[in-house]
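User: Hi! I'm working on a homework problem where we have to compare a predicted structure to a textbook description. Could you give me the structure for the chain below?
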Amino acid sequence: MDLGLAGKTALVTGASAGIGRGIALALAAEGVRLAVTARRRERLESLAQEAGAQMAIIECDFMQEDAPRRIADAALRALGAVDILVNNAGGSRPFKIDASEAQWEEAITLNFTRQRQLAHALLGQMVARKWGRIVNITGKSEPEGVNGAFAAKAAMHAWAKGLSREVGKHGITVNSIPPGRILSEQIERNYTPEYRKWQSEHEIPVGEYGKPADIANLVCFLASPRARYITGAVIPVDGGLRRYQF
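Assistant: Happy to help. Predicted structure tokens:
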């Protein structure tokens, strides 16, 4: 299927590894011109080499207060316009119940505030051109305990739904994808091979952990003109792991 993405432009955050890298590779394969950002420049340069495509590389610490504006400005200078924003930066933050305010502030900033700020920094030019796609890589809604990232991702879902209602009339869609167990450096670091095997056999209906490409395939579709009537949605890609109905 021709998704009609050739010639579009996209900004992908957290693109140096794992899901973000997979998304950038998939979009590049569809002919999208890319700006990619993360803290590790050498990883981004390796990404561009692997994709065989020219990419605008924006090395930036997402936690810096001015990061959203600097990233948006750099992407616009490099690409001329940003049609597609993929909010992928973030990370799990499991806490004890006596976690400090500083821990909570860091978790919410990394996993919600910066994404919201970056989207709003790019919305004006999307509205002006009457077309845009915002795709948020979020998280599950079944926390095992207190985790700052889960709280932030719930905020992302609520914000994205509300925003979708405001910008739909301008040809802009806003959707969220909570991944399941997707193989990455972080997954391999946090879960033993034995646990991954047990979970694949006992908790994941399709019987295996996913790959970054499994997320990237949906991102490409949601970013395309063919997905014009899908907005405000939260679509898990988890092999059936989650037990909620929708």
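For your comparison, note the following. The two ends are 27 Å apart (CA to CA). The first strand starts at residue 9 and ends at 13. Good luck with the assignment!
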